[in-house]
Amino acid sequence: MAQCPVCGATVDEAAARATTGLTAHGASETDPTKGTRQFHEGKWYYFDSLECRSKFLAHPETYAKD
Ligand SMILES: [Zn+2]
Fold first, then answer.
1. Which domain holds residue 38?
2. CA 6 – CA 47 distance, rounded (Å)
3. From the CA of 23, how far away is ligand 1's center (Å)?
4. Using the 8-state DSSP alphabet, how is residue 43 labeled?
5. 59 falls in which pLDDT band (50, 70, 90)?
C-alpha cells in the first residue's frame, strides 16, 4: 500500500493504477473515488482523493519528501 503524502491515508496502488490513464502531462483519472496518482520529480505519488492531489500539485515541495 502507498501512503497519501498530503493526509497520510493509505492508498491502494493497484486500484489507483487501474483507474488511471496516462496523458502527456502526467496522470488523468477516470474514477477518483478509488484513488489517483501523479508523476512528480521522477516518481509516482499516490493520493486517496483528488482534493489531496490538488493540494500536492499546488505545493509539491511541501509534500514531496523521501
Ligand atoms: Zn490524502
1. 2-63
2. 8
3. 22
4. E
5. very high
Query: 3-state DSSP call for residue 60?
Result: helix
Count: domains in the chain: 1
Q: Give me 43's grid cell.
A: 516518481
DSSP class of 32: G
42 φψ region: left (φ > 0), alpha (ψ -120 to 50), beta (else):
left
Neighbours of ion ligand 1 (CB under 5 A): 4, 6-7, 9, 48, 52
Cα 29 to chain centroid distance, Å, stands at 10
Question: 7-57: per-residue pLDDT in tens?
Answer: 999 998 887 765 545 544 455 555 555 678 888 889 889 998 888 999 999
